[in-house]
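Pipeline run #58 for the internal structure catalog. This entry was flagged by the ingest filter as a single-chain record with no existing model, so it goes straight to prediction. Upstream metadata was stripped on purpose; only the residue string is passed forward. Reviewer on rotation: M.T. Logging verbosity set to normal.
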Amino acid sequence: MSDEPPRKRMVKRPTGGTEEGRATPERLKTARDRTPSSQAWLSRQINDPFAAKARAHGYRSRAAYKLTELDDKLKLLKPGARIIDLGLAPGGWTQVAVERGVTNIVGVDLLPVDPISPAHILEMDFTDPACGPMLIDLLGGPPDAVLSDMAPNTVGHKQTDHLRIVGLIEAAADFAISVLKPGGAFVSKAFQGGESWEVVNLLKRHFADVKHIKPKASRAGSSEVYLVATGFKGR
């Protein structure tokens, strides 16, 4: 889930520089019918080296590189592992998992997601009480890792947006604690100051190690970080 504007098809493929980026910044050819925020977002996408790299490598989103960096550090995506991907649209994280040998993976998002074999994908609200049991049923057993790149739709009201962010992190953490295998891991998108101390303390009670990691693919000006808990102690 994301609060970014709908993605628009590029007029032409990126040119200049290497496949990892461009030599010089590109400009939008027209701003007609675009809001200022939409123009700014699209301009960032055009000139973002990770977005260019994702297009060149066939990933559905630049977020794929956030997971590759996290996995390089944490070694979550092992062949034979069971993985749950919460908020998977458009599918970049699941693509990385499959690419790294995971064959048993399920994901869920409110938005429709094109198939990614061999993943099972649900189009529904993760907070629906029926969702969790369906994910476990499709997975065939408890997961080795629960990955969440979920983000709430924001309304621009600081307190309301904070509550929505905390609510999603809490829901994902509670779910992970209720279903993970001993030794398992939980990764959730968070924002600096965006999760409550109660969530962190909850994770510290149930996991051997809890930390925040900001991948290089997260924009420098963004408050986005990832809350990472490893070594699940069991229930």
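catalog note: The chain has two domains: 1-58, 64-232.
catalog note: The helical segments are 36-47, 49-57, 64-74, 92-99, 131-139, 158-179, 197-206.
status: ready for reviewer M.T.
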